[in-house]
Amino acid sequence: MDLEQSLPIHRLFTGVARPAMDRALAQSHTVTCAKDSVIYSPHDFQRCLAVLLQGSVRVTKEALVVSNLHAGDLFGAAALFNDREDYAVTLTALSDCMVLFFPQAAIRALLAESPAFAENYVRYLSERIRFLSSRLDALAAGTTTRRLAQYLLANLNEHSTVASSATALCKQLGISRASLYRAFDVLEQDGAIRRSQKQIQVIDPDKLQH
């Protein structure tokens, strides 16, 4: 993996001067994670900001699937700049992955040295707040159809699909099979999704927003 090619495309590092970026990279380290391995758990994590360079990762909180991460996504911000001894979620590799870890000291230096990085980092944290707020909305949604729609939006992969069995979805959403199938029927009739065995294709994400 050529870090020179991988990192500049991530907007978090847009505008960061080359010397500051080189110093941060000198403190970083890469880790290869096998499929199904746990990368972070509440009691086993690093105080690092991580960039997923290759592969995909599932983020869960107990039985709840929070999101799926793909190459170019970040994680670990919740482990930085606090004294908590636990991490909020569990991250499990859905495929073989390569992850680049920037220790807290490197992030602190970038924040001090690069106004561009500081602004990018604040923007990233703001986006995370909005995302988590939307997840709370999904959990508090009043109807099964709304909860299913919010779940699908949160767990889309790069191909606009969600792979999950009916049993797993019922467990995640806390609903019965009958309720799940009724919700599927509503979304399919609306033209929002198409089902094929254990895969759900999202045809029109905008229709899942309403």
Topology of helices and strands:
Elements: H1 3-6, H2 18-27, E1 29-33, E2 38-40, E3 48-54, E4 56-61, E5 64-70, E6 74-75, E7 90-93, E8 97-103, H3 104-113, H4 115-140, H5 144-154, E9 161-163, H6 166-173, H7 177-189, E10 193-196, E11 199-202, H8 205-208
Antiparallel strand pairs: 1-8, 2-7, 3-6, 3-8, 4-5, 4-7, 9-11, 10-11
Helix pairs in contact: 2-3, 3-4, 4-5, 5-7
**Computed structural class:** alpha+beta
Mean pLDDT: 86
- Percent in helix: 40-55%
What kind of sheet is the major sheet? 4 strands, antiparallel
Report on the architecture of this protein:
It is a single chain. By secondary structure, the chain is an alpha+beta fold. Helix content is 41%, strand content 25%. The chain has eight helices and eleven strands. Helix 3 packs across helix 4, helix 4 packs antiparallel against helix 5 and helix 5 crosses helix 7. The model has no long low-confidence stretch (mean pLDDT 86).
Care to give the gist of this entry?
The chain is α+β, with helices and mostly antiparallel strands and about 210 residues long. The protein has helices spanning about 5, 20-25, 105-115, 115-140, 145-155, 165-175, 175-190, 205-210, and strands at about 30-35, 40, 50-55, 55-60, 65-70, 75, 90-95, 95-105, 160-165, 195, 200.
